[in-house]
Amino acid sequence: MGGLLGYGPLVALTSLRRKISVSAALGLLLVPGCHSAEQALPYAEAVRTSPDDMVGLRARTVTVATDHSVVSYRYPMLGGAHPLTVETRTRMAQRQTAFLEEIPDRGTPELHQDVTILAASPDVVGARLTVTTSAGMGETFEAGTLWYDSQSGEVLPWTSLFRDEEAIQRAHLALAEMLEEGYNIPTQQLPGLVGDVAQGGGGTYGATAGAEVPDDDTPSDGPIDEGDEKSEGPDLTDPERAHAAAERWAGSPLEDTAFSTAGGLAVRMDPEEVPAAGRVDEVLVPVESEDTEGLLSELGYQAREAALSGNNADDALPLGEELSAQGHTLDCVRLKCVALTFDDGPGEHTDTLLDILETYDAQATFYVLGSLVNEFPDPVRRMAEEGHELGNHTWKHDDLAQMSGTEIRKDIKRTNEAVRELTGFSPPTIRPPYGSLDGTVRRSVDQPFVLWDVDTLDWQSRDSDAVSEHTLTHTVPGSVVLFHDIHETSVQAIPAVLAGLHRQGYHFVTVTDVFGAPGLEPGDVYTDARVS
To answer: How far apart are the first and last CA of the chain?
Structure first.
């Protein structure tokens, strides 16, 4: 599908209104042969709230369609560098890279990823991530959940909703009982981990039946009293223990659990695992509220309260700082990231370049000349509004190494102020013209210096094909690539660059994103963020 300007795929960017949706399982349908005509199957109504429809919360939807694939994703924008936004986007990006690296030479497979909110309050935000992959007539679906604990500032797995692994085990037993009694599934036919736990007599942890448990993790054999304040096993509010437990319980249907409108759990299961449910898209099996009492952690109870209140926390949500171009959303340590950078502008071709970048939802870094900022104010404002980063490339491209400390400070300050006046942000990094710097330059400013590891020599060749070929040949994860948006031939090379790197599973980020935590130090010089 061609882009708006013929440069590539079309990107749809959508912000939606507030809308809370409750998903009910189709288990209400009567299934002949398994239950009488008067008996309805057990079902749960899951509280799932549209993320782009909550007060104080925005969502972003992106679609990139090419001749070899379609990828789309929607995620909540919780604020600049909010941990849940970063984790959600990073997981989606990882899945997108794996998808693109594995697509066949023929056909046009599709990958669609989405997020809904399961709970939202000042204490906790729960997100459900779904992944739908289709190729030809086949389709696969996966889902999981993440839980942000505002007290610790950590993003935790589903296991953190339970007080310990004994409680997780009991939840599986409650689920097994519902499947046996409500869906007429014999114990020996219970699927996966639920069957392992039900048949293991209470000693099974993780995906392997009979797996050993460390001594301090061993659960008690007695029932859990509703009034218990402390569990026998380790506290799963600890991030390390919660993640370790999630690995041991990998494959559990509780990975895709929401709270039900009845105050219990709504556990999604594959219809193939619950034959009595008939031909439906999903089965939401209820775990009654009385069966969860004493099993949830403090975070779990907070999440349940938020879900039952309708996730209507409004301005009290832990959204972090206001989303801006300075707030990153990807953890490039875990991804194939590349920083495309453009020097010497803005100029007459910059708007066209911004249109091209938008087709791939690509963020870039523009090292602008202060003397041109007021000459081309609209592209500069647009850079900031669309999430690109602006860097300082001096006032009019003078060689900083030939200047005194006073002259350097004056030049850099003047350019910083010109950018800040138009965008509200000061450039976080400096790129010295010609890559020229010395000790005086480094001591004279309090911003990091960013050079490059891939020099396209676009200013010299003025050959779009040569520029794109050089970029695709030499770029590796963590690369910083140098272009000049003042040259039309350079801008004309970018569609092929984006298409080729996207096909390889790369993600296009800003300079500060590609370097990530712990960030860039003032006065230091950086060329790339390659991982050794």
So the answer is: 38
Closest by Cα among 460, 453, 475, 417 to 525: 453
Q: Which of 1.20.1530.20, 3.20.20.370, 3.40.1190.10, 3.40.50.150 would CATH assign to domain 332-526?
A: 3.20.20.370
**CATH number of the structural domain 20-316:** 3.30.565.40
CA distance 447 to 168: 50
Closest CA to 436 of 448, 447, 451: 451
Residue 329 pLDDT exceeds 90: no
- The 10 Å Cβ neighbour count of residue 30 is 14
Residue among 490, 494, 476, 481 nearest 452 (CA): 481
Whether residue 64 contacts residue 11, with contact meaning beta carbons closer than 8 Å, is answered with: yes
The one catalytic residue in 149, 343, 361, 528 is 343
Do you know the residue count of the chain? 532
Residue tagged 């990807």 (tokens): 330
Active site (annotated) includes residue 343: yes
- The predicted model scores a pTM of 0.84
Q: What is the pLDDT of residues 481-514, one digit of tens each?
A: 999 999 999 999 999 999 999 999 999 999 999 9
DSSP string, 78-125: -STT-HHHHHHHHHHHHHHHHHHHH--SSS--EEEEEEEEEEESSSEE
* Torsion region of 462: left, alpha or beta (phi above 0 gives left; psi -120 to 50 gives alpha): left
Report the alpha-carbon distance of residue 288 to residue 368 in Å, rounded: 60
Q: Where in the chain is the domain with CATH 3.30.565.40?
A: 20-316
Three-state DSSP at 283 gives strand
Please identify which of the residues 388, 484, 502, 507 carries the catalytic annotation.
484
